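Researcher: I'd like a structural prediction for the single chain below. Treat it as a standalone chain; there are no partners to consider.
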Amino acid sequence: MRSTERSRIIFAVILLLFSVSIKGSPEFPITTDPSSQTSAAIYKDIVVWTDYRNGSTDIYGFNLSEREEFSIATGPSKQVSPAIYEDIVIWQDSRNGNWDIYGYNLSTQEEFQITKDENDQEWPEIYEDVVVWQDSRNGNWDIYGYNLSTQKEFQITTNPEDQYTPAIYGDFVVWVDERNCPTDIYGLNLSEREEFQVTADSVSQQRVALYSTIAVYESIGSGHGSVCFYNLTTGEEFQVTADPSGVLPAHFCPEIYENIIAWRDYRNDKYSGDIYGLNFATTQEFTITAPGIQAGPKIYGDVIVWTDYRNNNYDIYGCYLSSLTWSPCAPPPSEPLPFEEPPDVSYSVESVRELFTTILIVILVLILAVAVVILLWIKREEEKLPLTGPGEKK
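Model: Treating it as a single chain, here is the predicted structure.
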């Protein structure tokens, strides 16, 4: 057998083993481009994200069933923060000199503009035919909405303080509200046009997500943070987890789908975080850990996706929830650990000078050691030379 044929067989065997190992792994990369990909969203088999491969920020997508990647919005302007429902992908876009909300129909491959106000519209979310976002046209942040079927825009909040980062499911819209200071979670029933207050705590609530009538959000204060759960129908509220790291701001970015709540968790590493999840119906939890940062989980069906820094750039990873190991959930600590200041990484001129001197001394010592080794080798080679001259017999 020729050596080239033998090499091909060896390569094929290695490739086969590699593919089997990937298939058997519960986690899988969705993006592999060496630039960064962040802010994933998912609906059924379609994953979308913000992509930095072209020098700006674009919107790309991936079909999990067909294993195909595709571009959605590219160009010299910035496109960020995608959301998806059925065939409609929306995002915020800077092509007009401010942030507007744009959309794209995956079936018809048609792009369309949703907002045209000259001020900024950001953080879009979508459910069925309704798109919501935070809007700065009134001199503060308000929540606005748009009905894709009727093509009618409408204002949701009118309070003079800031309201931002909305979430929507069915007739309910919830958001972070600054009217009371610290921030609370408020909501509105779109059918009844009734506004209601979700939280009234003495600490700040941020990053709300919504599924059916269940809202999950970050609760941050007193040197710690936690993920909390609130039932809009029954008024039931409880703490899902507490952050023992003592690092602020502890952005958990909670997400909910059916009975599953997922969040970024700092219990193993106070400066990067892993993905943890809880089935509040069975009180079992799962963990997704890897070197670097795991953040921004999103769930649809049996698939969870997130932003991952294990490859020294931000990628989008995914995992089938049914393939994970679920274990009984430990109750959250009643008293979080005391606040701990992050290590001081500032450097004075004197400390930099001392560090440079130390490095220089180490380099000089290494050079001297190499020189000694070379001299000893030359001496040994000279001792091996024959003592007879050219043409003489030994």
